[in-house]
Specification:
This protein is of the alpha/beta class. The chain contains five helices and five strands; from the N terminus they run βββαβαααβα. It has a five-stranded mixed β-sheet with strand order 3-2-1-4-5. Helix 1 packs parallel to helix 4.
Amino acid sequence: MKDDRNTITIYTDGSCYGNQNEVNYGGWGAVLLYKEHKKTIYDGEKNTTNNRMEMTAVIKALESLKRNDLKIRLHTDSAYISNCINQKWYIKWRKNNWKNSKKQDVENKDLWVRLLDLYESFDDIEFIKVKGHDGVELNELADDLANKGSKKAECLDM
């Protein structure tokens, strides 16, 4: 059995009500576990996208860490994020001046730059793809937090 005492486990999620509408409300949430400690964070913003909220959840979770020398296991239900990291899409994006395989600008470049800078600042970080809305307790909690963030963004508009 492996020793996870020096591992930070993170679950992240993002949401966006009315994702394709002119006016929408996005939220992000994250659950962080280290030893016996559990921390939850969330927030929201108006007029965004689901992908931006997924990325913001990862960024905010990593920014909240005080150490970069522990193993991090980051769970996300976002194929967009996990595929980019695990399949190393970002290497070609950087090499091609932030153009994708279709020679188009990479969407969300501003967040990718932040996320990749954080990713590369940690000694040992693993991105794990989880199936969304499949009963994984901490992923469901991250989803609830993201929805709470979306509602918070909507309330700011009232």
